[in-house]
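Q: Fold this one first, please.
A: Sequence and structure below.
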Amino acid sequence: MQTIFVLLKFYTNMVRFFIRLLCLALWLPLAPALVAAPHIPATVEVYYSPRGGCTEAIVKALRAAKVSVLVQAYSFTSPPIEDALAAAAKRGVKVQLILDRSNLTQKSSQLAEAVGDNLSIKIDAKHEIAHNKIMILDGETVITGSFNFTHNAEANNAENLLIIHSKELAASYTANWQEHDGHSELYDGETAAKTKKSERAAPHKTSFATR
């Protein structure tokens, strides 16, 4: 009788063990999804150059902006993009640009036109190169990629452009934009004059601003 009791207890424990093993096997495939980072819902538009409609897509997005446009640009030589930014500002959109300091001396830069259109401009001279190429529209759309805001990027270079519709992603990019805004200097004529003087005195460096 005692032997039967021991066997029943043994088999009961074995059944419990296999049930636990089965539950573990069923749970393991679900584990990565349960512990993964939160999903950021987004709609993404993708464009390529040369002549793949990148500039047109940016202009179209800027025409749809209603509240704000935040820009970080290394090279800024595209008249259609500057025109679209100016048009946005004229209809009441708050447009703010942070540009790399190379725009102070680059003859093809749209900096002078932007000043003439009363756009808010700061120069980020803290870094060796302020190489970001982004726009944040209305706190809900991010434009980014390798695409510089230039004619060459549209007509000659192999580039990519993403237009991402995501409030969560836009919030992250906005926070980073604000960090750079904090150490950038408001553009004025004196800033340009000082930069030109220092670059004339410094050893020559190849400029890639028109890319």
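Q: Good. Now the second chain.
A: Here it is, same layout.
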Amino acid sequence: MNKKSGRDHTGNLMENHNVPCLRGRVLRNKLCIESAHTMRTRFPIIHIIGLPGAGKTTLGKKLSKKYHLPVFYIGAYRSKFPSSEEGEADAWVALFKDLSKRKWANCILETTGLNSRELFLKAAFPFSKIISIKLIAQRKILYERIGKKKKNERGGEWLFSDDFQDKYEFVKKMFKQFWDVPADITIDTTNMNVQDIFKKAVSELRVVKR
């Protein structure tokens, strides 16, 4: 296997999350999301971000089932390309192409929220086009949840960087930086079960714009 690049998964991490256009979005961007059983409903991109163990994949699947929306995982795109700087760039280009085919709507996106390429989504679209759900939890809880994953799900191709041996190390090094990433909705999953997280997300997504 080719040696992985030590730059691309987090080598281009956003250095400044305090972009003016991102501040206060939760106050200006309260969306009214109804059932997706009718195609008349147009959903924004629901962008779920979080560190490993936060519950992104589980929440994405449950929201997908409720609203009948496809989920896009950056990890799935990385697996299609070489573990190189060019391969990482190609993975994101492929992801953006598929989001474009969806007219940048009616889908769910799952990422860590820490890659600088994600800033494109925030900067390129008005507030009504994308809404972010940030899942947080205490560090020890994230470690416990990672430990419950299968061994081959604790690192490997997901990481795309030699800077992190596995997801434990990723959480250890990136925990504080992730805390500062802005989002429209933040849910602390530390003391919540899967169903409670889901209900909280649905409730927040239904908030009517004031």
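Q: Anything worth noting on the second one?
A: Residues 85-101 form the longest helix (17 residues).
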